[in-house]
């Protein structure tokens, strides 16, 4: 077979690339080896948020007493919880698959593809395909230490969690990144005995040490959290997992029904036969590429989405696919596309968000910055709704006055983060942000207090009035 454009992978990036490439040519083939439906819908964003929604409901019942609302402790029906997770998950997957099935059949191939050379792909059904341009959009998979696989069905990644028919009694979560923290806290609030393990003191997406320390105190108060622990190779013990670890010079051991490996993800490129091409690969075996064009070292090959090993986020994958599809479609003309402002959100409680450039990025780049801290503990609206746990760091440029970014753990951080990301992308000055309207009483008033402190620390504003009285009580 021959085609102008071959797209390997029909996930978020591959589908986005396909839609753009079709605007330029009808000679497009979309190749998918797996079950399809995108990582987001099948095993990522959507099923995890369904589990978190159940956990939030249970937690709301437990803390209702603070409002004078007397309730019995919630009774968790694990079978019903997981049934809803699977049913809604399957609905999201079905809708995605229906979109793919609406594409012309001549554009779709169900097979695994492997490079024979720079332009040829061999399919596992015996066919061979020659493509003028190729887009690699094969996604990513959980990265699990090989010795752990001896645990058999007692070892799970996030994909297997969403196949459970009920909730187990206990789970060890190794890794405190996005997946580990989101699922660990949700399972804990649904009555599962959970312990999180981390060899350092990391919390999700955070890099600013002051925000990390605050977040760690919150989560250690709520859950069993073994930070700075040295974990031995897990052992299977009947239908349980035996974990031994050292922490603070003391040895510990505990048994769990499952070990949830939240130890990161790796790009799905090892089975593509990249060694048969002239592509330059990095130390992880991932093709080197230009992030603004998505073009690899061979200029007719592009890479998009989680396969490039950079930012495993749906909106980034969609942008990657769009840029790669446009450039593959107009090849040999290739354009550079500006990237959006950085925006990452972790759906713990409180939520965590990283926007724009944080202190670690700014320091690594040698960029001058000033910062200001912001506590939500006495913020008016947050106290009204009993969500007054949170701390943020805001960053600004002392020369231009521009807002540069933020790291925050805060109530409704998903909404605050969008406002801040839009400000970064619009290159707004902190003073301009303060000219925007703020209603009372809302959580966003806390941002105004923080921005005023930041402006002062950049020596561009007055000393903030204690309590921000024009924000109203508790602004």
From TrEMBL:
Signal peptide: none annotated. It is an enzyme of class 1 (oxidoreductase). This is Dihydrolipoyl dehydrogenase. InterPro entries: FAD/NAD-bd_sf, FAD/NAD-binding_dom, FAD/NAD-linked_Rdtase_dimer_sf, Mn/Fe_SOD_N_sf, Pyr_nuc-diS_OxRdtase, Pyr_nucl-diS_OxRdtase_dimer. Residues 345-447 form the Pyridine nucleotide-disulphide oxidoreductase dimerisation domain. Its cofactor is FAD. Belongs to the class-I pyridine nucleotide-disulfide oxidoreductase family. The keyword Coiled coil does not apply. Keywords: FAD, Flavoprotein, Oxidoreductase. NCBIfam families: PRK06292.1-1. Transmembrane segments: none annotated. Residues 4-321 form the FAD/NAD(P)-binding domain. GO terms for molecular function: dihydrolipoyl dehydrogenase (NADH) activity. Its EC number is 1.8.1.4. The keyword Flavoprotein applies.
